[in-house]
Amino acid sequence: MNLLEWITKKYNRIISDLNRDILDSEKMKARFANDDGVNIYPIVAYIFNKDNNLSEMADRSFTNPEEIDFCLKKYQEIMYMLNKEINFVPTKENFCQFMGWTAEVYNQNLNSDADDIRAVMQMVEDYLIDSQLSAGQGGVTKANLTKFRTQVSGNNGHSLVTQKEANEDNRFKARFKPADQLERELKNLLPQALCGKKS
Q: Which sign does the torsion angle of CA 118, 120, 123, 127 carry?
């Protein structure tokens, strides 16, 4: 499978579906205008997932940084088009839906042994985190939810740590010594303690 052809075809279909179902839909525009509490995420997720056949997931292992960069640009174009009309925050999950990945595949690429793959994935990560923080700052999303999403660890978060949290973690680690270090220190204290008893 040619991945660039696959993502280009998928991009074109996504744009067509978004235009038909959301951006050019008079019914949806009326709901947005009335602030009718439209949850657009399930609609976008459905559109993004249409071409993600599970049997072809192994074929979608982008091993070339130019391929991932091309996909990032296509994803950014889609986010640009959506956000001209509605608020839709880019996330790791919807980027993965676009790519036909799981969050685990995303993280494997982000932590790749290949410097060039890791670098372009860091560009993706930076874009997603900046988009989420900007949305929180601008009031598009709640600030506490934005903070939670960026700090949560595991497959679905970005594992960002504030300087305060890093300092607290360092203080905690400094207070508690590893068991082997404690054992060595106790062994060193034993002869001193025995010498003190004899005198």
A: negative
